[in-house]
């Protein structure tokens, strides 16, 4: 009798309950186990040689997206997302630091408000940085807009235009950022173009705990008495990044090619120094059955700082073998080899040689095996 009462109550509740907006959960889970050469801790041995020990490491990256959607009475749609990257404590390490936005969309396009990706960054991250170039082409030094507003147009002639602007933290001295991207296809060829810029500041790179935000100052030292950080204003500083890429397939072969530029003009002791670098990428993937083999090459020129042209360039060779385990899960072997110029330690973007120790002047190789599954 008790079970019948419970069942009747459940049915009545289901019939009388109000309609709720659609909510879904999606994401991915990736496991990476890898070895990196020239990955020492920066110390020297008794002979004065750098510690360049090969290290074995692992990374577990679980991304959880919570999405909501509701159809409005005027025919438009309200949507939202909260996203977090779990188990990677140095990147997007608080709920909503990865994404936290609300959008309104319809036949006129869509408007998105809040913490969101930069589309120029996403173009570089995928597809051009895939298959071995995530630490070079895929890391231009920023990830997105912490307090952004963006507009995406409906498709016209196979292309979509997006424009975005970041309000900073609301302070009148806060830096601002903006971008414009255009993506579409001409026949079998997809084209991707984007331009991102920051005024009076610099990006917070790598999507740290501050999320997709900007900074109007940077640390230049530590006070010996108080132990507090000594900060320098980045007022007047500038940063920009543009990319033009094309991709397409011929039979079972997919080709990707891109050229990009990163320019940084950041105050140093009251003087702005302009650093400008070009990057060139060409890669291809051949698929057969459950397998795919990818090989690519990237060259990033030495910096031109307005005063000298140092030998601080780098080259990257990327190889990847993918094997499908199911329609949602794949396994892969990736080999990435970085070759750096003799003055690499002077490079503003030395973090891009992440496979080696910080500021290393030596080449480095990363060999990685892993799995990726989407849900």
Report on the structure:
7% of the residues lie in helices and 54% in strands. With 375 residues, the chain is mainly beta. It has one domain: Porin, CATH 2.40.160.
User: Strand-residue fraction?
Assistant: over 45%
Q: Indicate the radius of gyration in whole angstroms.
A: 23 Å
**Tally of distinct domains:** 1
Specify the structural class.
mainly beta
CATH topology: Porin
Unreliable residue stretches: 1-6, 8-16
The helix fraction, in percent, is under 10%
Please tally the helical runs, counting DSSP H or I stretches of 4 or more residues: 2
Order of helices and strands: HEEEEEHEEEEEEEEEEEEEEE
Describe the sheet with the most strands. Answer: 16 strands, antiparallel, barrel
User: What is the oligomer described by this structure?
Assistant: single chain
The CATH top-level class label:
Mainly Beta
What is the end-to-end distance?
A: 41 Å
Shape assignment: globular
Count of DSSP E strands? 20
Short précis:
With 375 residues, the chain is mainly β. Helices cover 7% and strands 54% of the residues.
Helix/strand layout:
Elements: H1 2-16, E1 22-36, E2 55-71, E3 77-86, E4 99-106, E5 109-117, H2 119-128, E6 144-152, E7 159-166, E8 176-186, E9 189-199, E10 202-203, E11 214-215, E12 217-222, E13 229-233, E14 238-250, E15 253-268, E16 271-288, E17 291-300, E18 314-324, E19 329-340, E20 364-374
Antiparallel strand pairs: 1-2, 1-20, 2-3, 3-4, 4-5, 5-6, 6-7, 7-8, 8-9, 9-14, 10-11, 12-13, 14-15, 15-16, 16-17, 17-18, 18-19, 19-20
């Amino acid at each position: 009798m008790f079970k019948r009462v419970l069942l009747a109550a459940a049915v009545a509740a289901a019939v009388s309950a109000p309609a709720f907006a659609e909510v879904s959960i999606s994401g991915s889970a990736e496991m990476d186990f890898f070895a990196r050469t020239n990955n020492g801790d920066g110390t020297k041995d008794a002979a004065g040689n750098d510690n360049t020990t090969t290290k074995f490491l692992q990374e577990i990256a679980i991304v959880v997206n919570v999405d909501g959607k509701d159809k409005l009475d005027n025919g438009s749609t309200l949507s939202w997302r909260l996203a977090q990257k779990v188990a990677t404590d140095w990147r997007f390490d608080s709920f909503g630091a990865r994404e936290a936005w609300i959008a309104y969309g319809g036949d006129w396009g869509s408007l998105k408000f809040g913490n969101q990706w930069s589309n120029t960054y996403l173009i570089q991250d995928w597809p051009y940085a895939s298959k071995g170039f995530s630490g070079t082409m895929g890391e231009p030094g920023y990830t997105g807009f912490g307090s952004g507003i963006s507009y995406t147009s409906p498709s016209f002639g196979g292309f979509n235009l997006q424009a975005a602007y970041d309000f900073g933290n609301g302070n009148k001295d806060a830096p601002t950022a903006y971008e414009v991207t255009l993506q579409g296809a001409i026949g079998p060829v997809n084209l991707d173009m984007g331009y991102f810029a920051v005024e009076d500041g610099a990006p917070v790179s790598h999507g740290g705990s501050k999320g997709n935000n900007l900074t109007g100052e940077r640390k230049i030292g530590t006070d010996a008495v108080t132990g507090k950080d000594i900060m320098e204003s980045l007022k007047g500083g500038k940063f920009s990044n543009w990319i033009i890429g094309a991709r397409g397939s011929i039979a079972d072969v997919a080709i990707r090619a891109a050229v990009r530029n990163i320019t940084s003009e950041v105050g140093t002791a009251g003087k702005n120094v302009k650093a400008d670098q070009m990057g060139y990428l060409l890669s291809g993937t051949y698929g057969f059955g459950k397998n795919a083999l990818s090989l690519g090459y990237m060259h990033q020129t030495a910096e031109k700082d307005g005063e000298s042209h140092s030998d601080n360039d780098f080259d990257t060779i990327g190889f990847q073998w993918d094997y499908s385990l199911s329609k949602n899960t794949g396994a892969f072997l990736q080999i990435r080899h970085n070759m750096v110029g003799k003055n690499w330690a002077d490079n503003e973007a030395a973090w891009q040689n992440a496979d080696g120790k910080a500021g290393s002047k030596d080449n480095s190789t990363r060999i990685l095996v892993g799995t990726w599954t989407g849900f």
